[in-house]
Amino acid sequence: MKVTQEVPGGPPHFQGPMMDVLLSLARTMNFTFVLERSPDGSWGTPLPNGTVTGLVGMVHRQEVDLALGPFALTSGRAIVVDFAAPLFSDAPQLMGGRGRPEVDPWGFMLLPFAPSVWATTLCSMGIWVLAAVMLLTTPLKNRQGVREALRSLWQTVVSFVFLYCGVLFQQGLEASRTSRERRWVGRLVVIGWTVTAMVLAWSYMGGLTSLVAVRHVPQPFQTLAALGDHPSVLLMVAKNSAESRLLQTGGPVVLRGLEKVREGKRLRMVSRRYHNVYLPMANGEPWVVVVEAYEAAAVAEHHFALTGRCDYYTSREIIVSYPHSIILQKNSPLLRAVNARLQALTQGGLYLHWLQTALPNSSICRHSPSTVTVQDTLSLANLWGVFSVLAGGLGASLLAFVCELASSTRTDAAD
């Protein structure tokens, strides 16, 4: 529900789908109402000491006849108040701030090709090597022993593997142990692989050039287990809410990975207000909020209306689903009449219509991409991975060259 003031200094004006529900109930049931707020500003839940907090406590103590909410139906709340017919079902999930676009310096290695293309390339190279071994090598002599034959075959296979890898990496190598009678067949085999390798190399270079302009938006916390692996990140939850009770008392089956958060005392009970919790999170503060999907959509819509940006994301993992509805006093005579009217509102699609009207921009940021394309100049900031691989390759080749010289020197000394 949104609270505004049509006249500065005047009485507050309430808007939102739940206010529309209340007005519909008042009109069809012919009653007037006075709006009250809970002293602690929370939804409310029964505590272990027997007290009931927030709006749930006001209804339980019969200070008010009903509370709009909508409230998540939990076993503890159902003991002290009555729930009307459910308006919708919603599930808490993690909501975090989307990071700023970052360069993936290692993305150039594998991203230009899909995994199926990489697998096909390796399989085809193996087939070409096998064909080369069968068509280009000289038949082994009968007088050779088994050990010598296997050694000769191994050297042949290795030489052809280096040959075809060199063609793929656009380097020149020479094959040995070829049969003069099969020279033309050998040329056809090498030409076929060369054409295939050239097409792959050109496609790879084109894809690599395109990926230089790609930025990745980090969305690291998709599960509670992932949150447990980051000891500097806090977990925020609304105080005296169904989610706070669940996170405090839920077992390891429901809350996988939350043990590390509890042990590190990173679970914080707060009032989920935009300027105190959500806006700092969008600006980079290291915390994540447990929030229902509808509230997450409302926060994202409000933030987009103010800034024009989609700075939040929600996790793929949901914790548990709750029905949500209005609460009334225990054994209230209004319950049957309220249930009949709420069922008519939901079955007729009015509540969903009011919800969509209240959040016109909620779908804009619902599926924000995790990668974006930018125009930028090449620099070490986005190419340091390329130079790292180049330096590693040069170092490995230098080491192989030194080992080869040492092995050659030792062989000459032995002779």
How many β-strand stretches? 13
Please report the distance between the alpha carbons of the first and last residues. 92 Å
Oligomer: single chain
**Main beta sheet strand tally, sense and closure:** 5 strands, mixed
**Beta-strand percent range:** 5-15%
How is the largest sheet built, in terms of strand order? 9-8-10-6-11
- The average pLDDT score comes to 78
H/E element sequence:
EEHHEHEEEHHHHEHEHHEHEHEEHHEH
Coarse morphology: elongated
Q: Spans with pLDDT under 50 lasting ≥5 residues?
A: none
Radius of gyration, in Å, reads: 34 Å
Number of helices: 15
Q: What structural category do the secondary elements indicate? A: alpha+beta
Q: Helical proportion?
A: 40-55%
What is the topological layout?
Blueprint: E1 2-4, E2 13-15, H1 17-29, H2 54-60, E3 66-72, H3 75-80, E4 82-83, E5 88-90, E6 92-97, H4 107-110, H5 115-136, H6 146-168, H7 183-211, E7 214-216, H8 224-228, E8 234-238, H9 242-249, H10 259-263, E9 267-270, H11 274-282, E10 287-292, H12 293-307, E11 312-318, E12 322-328, H13 335-347, H14 350-358, E13 371-373, H15 380-414
What would you say this structure looks like, in words?
- With 415 residues, the chain is of the alpha+beta class.
- It has a domain at 107-214.
- It is 49% helix and 14% strand.
- The protein contains 15 helices and 13 strands.
- Strand 1 and strand 2 (13-15) form a beta hairpin.
- Helix 1 (17-29) crosses helix 13 (335-347), helix 1 crosses helix 14 and helix 5 (115-136) runs antiparallel to helix 7 (183-211).
- The longest helix has 35 residues, at 380-414.
- The radius of gyration is 34 Å and the shape is elongated.
- The mean pLDDT is 78.
